[in-house]
Specification:
It is a single chain. This protein is of the alpha/beta class. It is built from five helices and five strands. It has helices spanning 19-22, 27-37, 51-61, 80-88, 127-138, and strands at 2-7, 42-47, 67-71, 93-97, 119-122. A five-stranded parallel β-sheet has the order 2-1-3-4-5, sandwiched between helices. The longest helix has 12 residues, at 127-138. The radius of gyration is 14 Å and the shape is globular.
Length: 151
């Protein structure tokens, strides 16, 4: 079962930026832990600081993968284009955030992508990704993927 973890802007700096919010571990090291913890899932990882590149990646996998775990970072709160891309694909998307966005600045309380995701997880540090993967792992492949998203 192919699952993409897709990270947005500034998440390439995990482990070095704002450690009090995002922790001190790089995502690459954490991704290795996820691969070991979920041997039944075929995990891939992609990160970009560019909105259009993230949209291209959603289009690329959004009709063939069984799930996408998306941390759109700041684009969560601003990108109609990213929202439209999620709406356009068939693969179910789980929105994740490392920090509790509702305990931060008010502008972070609104998600442009949440209405088109099957769920949102926020505030559990890097473990937010693990929780999203557990969701996909617990569902049988025939139960997720094409046609599973609500419009």
């Amino acid at each position: 079962m192919k699952i993409l973890i897709l990270n947005g802007p500034n998440l390439n700096l995990l482990g070095v930026r704002e450690k009090s919010i995002y922790g001190s571990q790089s995502f690459e090291l954490y991704f290795e832990e996820l691969q070991q913890a979920f041997p039944g899932l075929e995990l891939s990882y992609f990160q970009s600081n560019t909105e259009g590149v993230l949209i291209d990646k959603l289009h690329e996998v959004g009709f063939s993968y069984k799930g996408i775990v998306l941390n759109a970072a700041a684009y969560t709160h601003t990108s109609v284009a990213l929202s439209d891309a999620i709406k356009a694909i068939e693969t179910p998307v789980v929105e994740v955030h490392i920090s509790n966005v509702f305990a931060r600045e008010a502008f972070r309380h609104k998600s442009m992508i949440a209405p088109y995701c099957i769920g949102s997880i926020s505030g559990f540090g890097l473990e937010s990704y693990r929780l999203a993967l557990q969701y996909f792992e617990r569902l049988k492949p025939k139960q997720i993927g094409f046609g599973a998203k609500s419009s």
